[in-house]
Amino acid sequence: MHTYPTQAVILAGGQGSRLRPYTDDRPKPMVEIPGTGTPIIGHQLSWLAAEGVTDAVISCGHLAEVLQEWLEEAVLPLRVTTVVETEPLGRGGGLRYAAERLPDADQPWYATNGDIWTRFSLREMAAFHAERDATATLALARPRIPWGAVETDAFGHITDFIESPPSPYLINAGVYVFSSAFTTLLPDRGDHERTTFPRLARERRLAGYPLPNGAYWRAIDTAKDLTEAARELGSRGA
Cα-flanking dihedrals φ and ψ of residue 47, to 5°? Predict the structure, then answer.
């Protein structure tokens, strides 16, 4: 029987420069998805709580006080702690700094980037992680290409136009399951995606969990992403 993680880290320290002017006075996770009245971080906390998470550590950076003030006033579905880097540690160092403040150092944990808006079963991902005895598992998404694609035959005639087709490649979806041992493998400073992940991949201790068919996933990077997320969520009745 699997023991599902009950703790998580949310990385919420990015500048969000591509989301300006929305991020001129707030960090990216505090940007509201139009029509919901709730910032991205609020949706993430609700999702984590629904998946059995009881404790979350949020790594803050840019305009941290705005996020902290919202957390103090909001009715939250789980216990939340915030940490703020006093100096830049890089993605890996920041993740370690936050993970060291999780309540159960000997238990597995989830992590997510603070700009991801998604819904799928974290418990199923955790079971996938455990079955492969992985040290780290990445959720993998197949995003839609933002341009129209053109299909041709062998002779070079155009046979079809396809609007925003799914990418042929899987990408890191920004949601993770980590074993308790993963924390000590993170750098104190630097980028774990250039150090820790490649090392684990060579050792066959890094797993990739493709998001289930029909699972909603979007990274909120631009104003267009906000608009499309609102439209998609409205069409799903979310």
Answer: -65, -50
